[in-house]
Design a protein that fits this description.
The protein is an all-alpha fold. It has one domain (about 10-285). Helices cover about 80% and strands about 0% of the residues. The chain is built from eleven helices and no strands. The protein has helices at about 10-15, 15-35, 45-75, 80-110, 115-120, 120-130, 135-140, 150-180, 185-205, 210-245, 250-280. The termini are far apart.
């Protein structure tokens, strides 16, 4: 019931509705983990993973049928320009869904501080490993943020590190999507929860700072996640095409060409997002 509230065709016509669906899915998942699984002495140690698991379960049907719909467009539409325009509708819907995840996770991070160590345990560890690896244990205990990297040489190295990490995530997303079809939603929901943890830490337990925290990470986060969605769409299209036996003759080359074009676009967007994260965002926050 819950996972099929909005159908893919409607989402492409009114993509902004997915923002509220994302809030609903993420909120149900987090509250379920907080008030049900927190009572279990074993499962409460894996709250961060359980929260993502339930979010993925809610999102999988929508993700699968959306990818199936996009693969059908590859078979029906031959012009690249029109095809990209059609795919952009799906990307828009997925970005709104992701934004809903981020807002909901960030909100509950601040509203339920007593459950934060449980619900975001894995996410906080990832945040500290990226932002403060030298003082990892202290960061986990304090939920602190390391000082921004300054200096031209340091920023160049940071740019390389961020871009390389983003490419790694993109490759993993494509492979995950290729192997499991709609399975890439796990990678994307996980990234939403990590960003939400970062937003919560930045907001310093104050809802007043929540909008600023979201803006801080979404300046580069939206194009970055958009690139991951494009990669997931590329892998998912091929996966569905294999299942439906559409990789034959001229249709095969059309589908592969479209997927390759989507991958190139995703890589370019990731590089631009890394530039924004290193050289632009620190100037405002």
């Amino acid at each position: 019931m819950i996972e099929m509230i909005v159908k893919p065709k409607r989402a492409e016509r009114r993509p902004w509705e997915m923002f509220f669906i994302g809030i609903l899915y993420a909120s149900i998942s987090l509250l379920l983990v907080s008030f049900v699984f927190s009572k279990d002495s074993v499962l409460n140690q894996y709250g961060g993973i359980l929260m993502i698991t339930f979010t993925v379960i809610c999102s999988l049907p929508f993700m699968y049928y959306l990818i199936k719909l996009e693969e059908g467009k590859d078979v029906e539409i031959s012009k690249s320009g029109r095809l990209l325009k059609e795919h952009s509708k799906a990307i828009s819907a997925l970005i709104w869904l992701f934004m809903g995840f981020v807002v909901a996770f960030s909100f509950w991070y601040l509203v339920l501080p007593e459950y934060t160590p449980q619900n975001f345990n894995a996410q906080i560890k990832v945040f500290c490993a990226i932002n403060n690896p030298a003082n990892f244990d202290y960061c986990i205990q304090q939920h602190g943020i390391s000082s921004p990297v300054t200096g031209n040489v340091a920023r160049q190295q940071l740019l390389i590190n961020i871009f390389a990490n983003n490419i790694y995530v993109l490759i993993f997303t494509v492979l995950f999507s290729l192997a499991f079809g709609a399975g890439a939603i796990f990678v994307l929901a996980w990234n939403a929860s990590v960003i939400a943890a970062a937003v919560g830490i930045f907001a310093e337990k104050s809802l007043v700072n929540l909008p600023i925290g979201i803006l801080r990470y979404m300046i580069h986060g939206i194009p970055e996640i958009g690139a991951y969605f494009i990669g997931a769409l590329a892998g998912g299209i091929i996966s569905v095409a294999i299942i439906r036996k559409d990789l034959e003759g001229e249709r095969m080359w059309r589908i592969l060409q479209d997927s390759l074009l989507l991958m190139i676009i995703a890589i370019v967007i990731l590089f631009v997002a890394a530039l924004v994260e290193v050289y632009i965002t620190p100037n405002f926050f």
